[in-house]
## 1
Amino acid sequence: MLLTSGSAPKFYKTFFVALLASFTLFLRLSKGLEVPAMPNNAERTFIMIKPDGVQRGIVGEIIKRFEQRGFKLIALKLVHASVPHLEKHYEDLKDKPFFPGLIKYMNAGPVVATVWEGLDAVKTGRTILGTTNPLASAPGTIRGDFALAVGRNVCHGSDSIENAEKEITLWFPEGVVQYTDVKAQWIFE
Ligand code: IDP
Ligand code: MG
């Protein structure tokens, strides 16, 4: 290529920028799969208002908090779950000393089973609920505002995407409801 004295600085500048861009790309690729994961606006979580939450009349309050945060309600039912159903739901805890008491508590009255969809629904859902032990839950969380004892902590939320999908299938074998969430365009970019 013929470089005149005027075009030479421009050529070197372009060359340098291209080299830098290639080097940056190489660095990103060589770092493996460090490309940030795409946020999933359609992540789903299973949230349940336990028998104490239903009896204490805070179903609306709990649902309100998920609605106002921007999550989309895609399934909801009031159900008095059977012991085998609850044992299946909590099967990971079957060896814990509190398991029989937990099943008795969960079977003592109806629960409200719900599924919510939205950005980071599983993790954010548990943040809205608070920690397992209400005494350690921050004020502003559901357990931090409405509960004191770990064995009466008013709500359940899935702890992983995988468990959320399992729980949704267990509680809603008929499937969830498909519809357009008109507020979504004002909640997501
Ligand atoms: P999580 O509900 O916050 O996910 P897990 O450890 O999965 O907590 O326990 C399930 C449920 O079992 C709790 O929400 C609570 O109702 C009950 N539970 C957990 N630990 C205890 C305990 O030490 N004593 C009595 N009940 C417990
Ligand atoms: Mg759990």
Note: The first strand starts at residue 43 and ends at 49.
## 2
Amino acid sequence: MNVFSDPMQRLNPGVQSFLKQPMRLLIDGQFVDACDGREFETYDPATNSLIARVAEAGVADIEAAVAAANRALVGPWAKMPPAAREAVIHRLADLLEKYADDIAQLESLDSGKPAAQIRAVDLELAIGALRYNAGWPSKLHGQTIPVNAPDMHVYTRREPIGVVAAIVPWNFPLCQACFKLAPALAAGCTVVLKPAEQTPLSALLLGKLAMEAGLPPGVLNVVPGFGKVAGQALVEHPGVSKIAFTGSEAVGKHIVRTAASDLKHVSMELGGKNPNVIFADADLDVAAATAAMAIFFYSGQVCAAGSRLMVERKVYEQVLDIVVAETRKLKLGHGLAADTALGPLISADQFARVSGFVERAKAEGVECVIGGQKPGGDLANGHFLEPTILVNASDSREVVVEEIFGPVLVMQPFDTIEELTARANNTGYGLSAGVWTKDVSKAHKVAAALQAGTVWINTYGQFDSAAPWGGYKQSGFGRDNGEEGIEKFLQTKTVWTHCS
Ligand code: ADP
């Protein structure tokens, strides 16, 4: 049967039965309706058809969730020995592994991303984040400090920072939730998780599994809802100590300004306009094929997308030909179909935004070599956009400097390293970059010169829960993953004891 005619029929029985249940908020260990009974709808972006109605958190629900998280912060969770806390986090990872195929299908339906890719990438990263951070509780030791004053014993304690508001976007819903939840739990914090309004479902399933894993009530609360209401209420709430945010630069800046009123701790993972640089001495076949996936993976809805491909002039045409050939191979389709390489954009708004960039660029004389159209047939009702390659764009064009967050690659030639690094750095963003060359010293020289939180050499888009991830400049501050990933959920207490 054509997947577009009834995608729900493609779902595993476990996902079908999950979707038959009411989609409620998780507050204090209970699944509850919103106080005012409001609900919102979540749609399949590949067909534009309704998947489910979901309880919509309002201000009163945020109040209840934050109160529950504050109670849990000083309840059994605070007294749990490190080994027990580690075990709970591992049990949650076990459950994600057990239900990985179901979760991938649910996430695919809600986000449009190919289920097989979610299973291979998002689930592995989410499970990896839980497993990596599960090891921390027993290792969060302070220090003894040799102070100058006599008869003093001074030591430090590493304590949880408090209630964490984890506010996450729609492009990696489960994965981003776990990047924040895992270290927050390991640090002993409690969490109110607000998934994006476009993709609330996997967070609710995560909440259900967290309860099954034995997380005490109130340690994880899940509050689907809209940014301007539920998100804003969380950011303003005095009972929240820390905001861990991934999303757009505009909302990130707004949150920082709001959080300044009571000096909440904030960490921000924002957007990127990531230069992917190919030198003439690179393995061009591998570099160019990877460059196509670096931008088109998840239809370019990835903050790390290699959206600006800069190629040394003497091999520019050759690389362009390979990237175009690779792009032609990418099949658009429903995320639940096994042969789909690229899914739709998340929403009609996102489609309008991305295609607006393409249309304005074309009107300004930028050349579109491939793509740029909305496909018809089975794909006509979804928010699909063909993978698009733009060339002949000068550095000042918005498609060169702005984050498009869609399947749109801009290719530009360069001549020298100095020119390349100056141009690549001439953007407000600084999230990630790629460098392709067989010359080791050139690779490291360019990696050092690029202003980016992550640089990939002769590879692209690698992640690991042990490797810090975050931005320079307006791509944000604070790091997810690795040791720095847990640091931001801890605070240090210094204890002085007079012992004469
Ligand atoms: P995107 O462009 O990826 O949709 P957004 O920054 O709009 O990114 O959204 C990321 C997350 O931030 C979502 O969960 C959204 O609901 C939330 N959000 C949006 N506006 C606000 C706000 N004013 N306060 C708090 N959270 C918000």
Note: The radius of gyration is 23 Å.
## 3
Amino acid sequence: MKFKRDLLWLVDLEPEDIWELIVTAKKIKEGKIDVSNDMSGKVLGMIFQKPSTRTRVSFEVAMLQMGGHALYLNWNDLQLGRGESIKDTARVLSRYVDIIMARVFSHLDLKELAYYADIPVINGLSDLCHPVQILSDLLTIYEKLGRLVGVKVAYVGDGNNVANSLLIGCAKTGVNISVATPEGYEPNPDIVNMAVEFSKVSGSTVEIVRDPADAVKDADIIYTDTFVSMGMEKEREERLKVFIPKYRVTMDLITSTGKRTYFMHCLPAHRGEEVTDEVIDSGISIVYDQAENRLHMQKAILRWVMGL
Ligand code: CP
Ligand code: NVA
């Protein structure tokens, strides 16, 4: 039996696992751990059902810099696109590659893939969550503020996959999180309930509010994401009408916290929609540090799923 540790959502990770990943990624970034041979002879299969810049490139570069190789596998170019089952694909790929990373529409498809694969499966984003993004974001927050416990993150915008993972990641690591969304666009209610339970253990707070002004009070970080996630293009006009008037991150919203507040975004940004150019191009924006940290965190994740 091969070693099998998946990373499908942060709910499965103990707070200690998250800390270990953050500390390891930081050491890798600082050159304190030599990972150049960790993936020697290993192959990562990367299945993409949606586009990607950061996730694709950071995993591919990480594998290369760790002595391994990554295969880009577009869903529609695989027989999956012609109806081959996920079960058969998982079993066959398990005979060729050592790890699978998949970006899919449905989280259930990802679970099925992981169930039938006998090698580790990493979630590269699903409709439900984006765990690898939030792990590197926690590293970025830790680097900027020197701590996680007691930090306040305000997420303003759509209660989507990124918001869901942010809720779990913050609640597990002692970060206070306040999420402001319009009615009907709240984060997944089961995720919110789990975050509340995790926060009781870590001693942090979880808040879901309507008004961005309430969420950003005393915030160290204001985080947003697109109002129109991949696959939601048909709802674009309606969503922009609901979100833009009240949920766009502007300099006024940032200064209203009354303290030095960093701006975060997982990217890609839709400038002029969820955030103004003024904010994303300003000195308080740490979006490119977030993007860079994806590379360091992917290396820590690859080691972790392989039990290194
Ligand atoms: N943030 C993120 O996952 O970016 P990509 O869609 O470019 O991979
Ligand atoms: N919420 C966005 C994240 C992109 C990285 C989406 O799902 O499209």
Note: Residues 125, 160-162, 225-226, 229-230, 266 surround norvaline (ligand 2) (CB under 6 Å).
## 4
Amino acid sequence: MAYTYEYYKKSADHLLERFGGAPEIGLVLGSGLGHFAGHIEDPITVPYAEIPNFLRSTAIGHAGQMIFGTVSGKRVVCMSGRFHYYEGYDFEQLSIPVRVLKLLGIRALILTNAAGAVNKSYKPGDIMVISDHIKLMGASPMRGPNIDEFGPRFFDMGSTYTPKLRKLALELAEKSPLTVHEGVYWFTPGPQYETPAEIRAIRALGGDAVGMSTVTETLTASHCKLPLLALSVMTNMAAGVLPQPLTAEEVIETANSIEAPFTDYVKDIIAHI
Ligand code: HPA
């Protein structure tokens, strides 16, 4: 499938018509913000299945809808349910959500996710503002013919996680009961969790947290120069740190346990963007 500018525009035009206006800020809600949608004032909800040329959610716990409304006085659009490589999508397909958000006219994007803590000074329930990422897997959502309307063929990744937004998030963390770090996110394709040896290698190579999402969205945002903030919820200590096996239940339980303060924190960030 060769994607064109018009391909993405068809999805965006449909959404703009349904929303009746353009959002300022986009959010991709990962684990820990499942109920964030309940905090959106005057919501207009569009299931992914009704958006032309869009993807379908298959992941457990991901609702699969786009919600437009107001949070902290700003017009936001939230993706409740994201798309992952492990679901069977290829990297090129995973460019779709962020390109559509870009065409809606947002001026900043906030990504949230669940991640395993590789850095042993982190604890489950802590938050990490992503400063940078490492993806050694040889794939990119920008592979294939370049779409010049979005950005250049070759693009810089030096300040992809926008320094100004990271600074804002760290400043606002001081008012929050959450413990907020800044660190490097290591992408793994999943769906298996990592082996203890992989986690030791990731730690040695500079990863602070590990997860199966976000980087395709990050790369797509970077290509089209969308200011970006990405926040990881440490839902568990990564493989081999503790004696017990990792489970999806533990990930969901920890994410749910910080839902209220994390929602307040993200609302405060939106108020200040
Ligand atoms: N590894 C990868 N992805 C994750 C983890 C993990 O430990 N926890 C939550 N998402």
Note: The two ends are 36 Å apart (CA to CA).
